[in-house]
Amino acid sequence: MRAMILAAGYGTRLWPLTIDRAKPAIPFMGRPLVGYVAEYLARHGVREVVVNLHHRPESVRAALGDGHTFGVRLHYVEEHDILGTSGALDNARHLLEGDTLVVINGKLATDIDLGAALEAHRRTDALATLVLRENPKRERFSTVETKDGLVLGFGPSPQPAGASDNASENGGAGENDAREDVPLMFTGIQILEPRIFDFIPRGVFSHSTTHVYPQAIAQGERVAAHVAPGMWYELSTIRRYLDISVELMRREGRDVEIGEGSVVAAGAEVSESVLWEGVSVEAGARVRRAVLGAGVRVGRGEVFEDAVVVRAEIVRGAERPEKALQGEVHGANFVAPLPR
Questions:
Q1: Contact indicator for 113, 235 with CB cutoff of 8 Å
Q2: How is domain 2-234 classified at the CATH fold level?
Q3: What is the reported pTM?
């Protein structure tokens, strides 16, 4: 079975971490983010994986190689222009046609049982199966409308109920069922039959939930809904990236990720933080709930808390995306506070 990891986005909300590398290549739990996703696929028996690239593609190739470290064989497809979630499939159809296909968003951390979703898909004889989860906190994810185990359409985000913006985990409902009045959301995991390509426009930008599934459903195709329990996190912002990293590290009995070549001196205080490669934290420095990018130096007496820090030199001349955090240069570092 083959899979495609959708990973061509700019990662603008992860800026400034994505200045010098693509989002798929940012470190996450001791490996590149897309390597983490590839390992998830490998655990469920998927060995051939296509990754689409756009921004700084060389950083992804350097970080992931041929994929053997993560239990898969990787194939790369570059997009000159961003093509969208289904346009990406069209661009890679020469590598994907002919077999049932798993497609997964490249910014996820999950333990959802993909095997159970595949079994459910085989029973339905559907064009596609979307893996869904309950959204009891009514987070800002589009609602998926279902009936009798089938997807009917896609709606706006549910009205908030005072819940946190952070991604979360929940126990889920039974297969193809949801509790009354609890909205369902799409996890970014889907299982497709080869005839999906009959509904994907050729050579243009397109999104699955707006340009493909509604038209397929209107023509009588079955798009199945598989409501799954389990852990599910989405790493689209730096706040989410940090919070999720800390949560998963705690499950391993720690709260700091220290990248290759990084040094934390005796007498330094570092907690609930992610340090990329080549970071130096000197004695007397304090770092709490922060992300320190590659090569950052934290001097004696410096304090970084609730912030992302990168070397100022990589920010000079870089244009800040509209959705990115704002920050300031402090000495050799660029510091952007994280929103509460």
A1: no
A2: Spore Coat Polysaccharide Biosynthesis Protein SpsA; Chain A (3.90.550)
A3: 0.90
